[in-house]
Sequence to fold (689 residues):
Amino acid sequence: MPRSTGAANNTVRIMGKHEVFFWTAVWLALGAIGATWLSRAELNALQQKFEADSRIVHRLLTQRTVQHDTILATLAASATGGDARCAENARQQIMRTFPHIIAVLCDGMKQAWPPISRSAVALDQGRYWLALDGGENRWALQVDILKMIPHSEWPSAPIHVELRNGHGHVVLQKGMTSADGWEFQFSKKLSSDSQPFTLTTRQHAGWSDLPWASIAAWLLAVAAALGAVAAWRLQSIGRRRAEHLLRLRKVERLNTLGELAAGMAHELNQPLTAILANSQAANRLLKVEPPDLDKTRDAIAQTVVQAKRAAQVITRLRDAIGQPGTAGRTRDVSLNEAVNNALHLLAPEIRSRQVALTLEGCSPAAMVNADPVELDQILHNLLWNALQALEQVGSCERRLQIRIESQAQHACVRIADSGPGIPPAALSHLFEPFFTTRKNGLGLGLSLCETLAGGMGGTISAANRAPRGAEFLLSLPQPG
Amino acid sequence: MNGHPILPVIYLLDDDAAVRQSLALLLSTVGMSVKAYAEPDVFLREFEPGLPGAILLDVRMPGIGGMTVLDRLAAMRVTQPIIVLTGHGTIDLCRRAFKAGAAEFLEKPVDDELLIDTLQECLKTYLLQSSRMVAERQARERFERLSAREREVLDMIIAGLTNREIARALDLSPRTVEFHRARVAEKLETGTLAELIRHYAPLVESAHI
Fold:
């Protein structure tokens, strides 16, 4: 069973001020949460990298300090042969091999012995002396801390590295510092007894290190998602409102009708009462012998006056309501969309009656020049009539066929049901006001439909179908 | 109440002059005298509850509405029948009118036969009731003239006791009972026993309660 597609919703609504505030606040809150999370993740990653770098530096420096001890031990051991020249070859070779060892001193050399304290290694402009007391031979090395680690082996990150002991400190590499942002710090003693330096590294992470691209992407994603939700909500609110308005309009129309009927009843009943009483009084006056002709004449004159008064009430009423003219209210409307709208509103009724619905739209959509509200009302009435007719047949025989056709000058919609059809005697009175075949019908629905269609330059007609059922044809002029 | 000296008056209350004129004319053809009013206030001021009559009332009027007039009349304990006339009779309005004491509810435009019959029926019922009420009031007044002993005797007469039985029950001599009995008949202005029972049995019974 082909089903009608969901009616296109073209409700346009402007967001209220506080709704804009609300959605902006939600966006900012979600954005802030996401940005914080992303930043923390990034800072954590930075810190881990920093700590890894710091450990590499620590390992390299520890290796060097251990190396110094080994070199001194080796020199002392090799010199026990008693080479008075203090193994000049070895010295030269050591300084070549290890560029950060800038001086090697031997006790035997006639050179001023630098001030070396075994227990506290003095730092002097990034250099320090390290000595080993090997008995007959004393050896000492001067190390340039700044050259201890060749440039190629440094970690790439701009971390601040310094070594310190009790006497001073040497900055091996200067890092960036800034007042704001975050600072990572790492501090560990070198694992060397002879050179007990403490390595301290620091790294600064500034605002520019935050993952701005990811944050921007996140904000955009949140905005897009919220926009979609807001749009969806607006649309569903709009749809609900439209349906509510339609219901309200229906009730309002009924109330107005009731009020009108009550008012009209009163306005007409007063002169009618007078007419009836006067004419009946005249009748009675003429029956007595002798008849009171003066009184009778008065009564009849009053009857005339009151009959005119009743006619005026009707005239006034017609003027007040006015004929439904459509000048200036018609516009180009898609007949397909109007039919879909009407079906959408009646969808629950169609479902509950288990009606098999066939909708043959035409492509491209048939356009008509009509007042959309009145077109809605006509379609609603015709469909509602068809549904009521279908109630009179078994639920498996309920078929509703709707066909939209586009012709040369007109576009039309055929609404055909498989109900009992229209009694032949009723067919010619169908569009007359107050004509109804229903028990509680007012007989105004089809009359109104015809008036409305006529006002828009269209026509509406009804016929019976073979073998059974009724077909209504609404034809409206195409634009242009 | 045969040949009541005063003719019943139909009070007609409607804001529409044509309705007042036509209904007054119609009712005059059957010899009813009509007093027509446009203003509820004027009507309420001039209405005489003591005189026999009936009230024809339009419930949809400007100013104080017909329903308010009904309520006022009920507060005045008016016994005259009230016939409500309306141009748009809803069930709700009808129910409210009867609750407020309306005797009949007619829809405009009203047929002459229906209106006249209804009015005459209501008037007949009203006159019957009011004459019954007059008789009851008289009986009560007379009954109240009786002394305690006389009431006891009356009580027993109505219960069907003979003079001798009454004398025994009240420990009196039959002559004394005879004397009381004559006083009762004199005070209640009744000649026969049947009349006495018909008029005073309800009063005696209500006095027991």
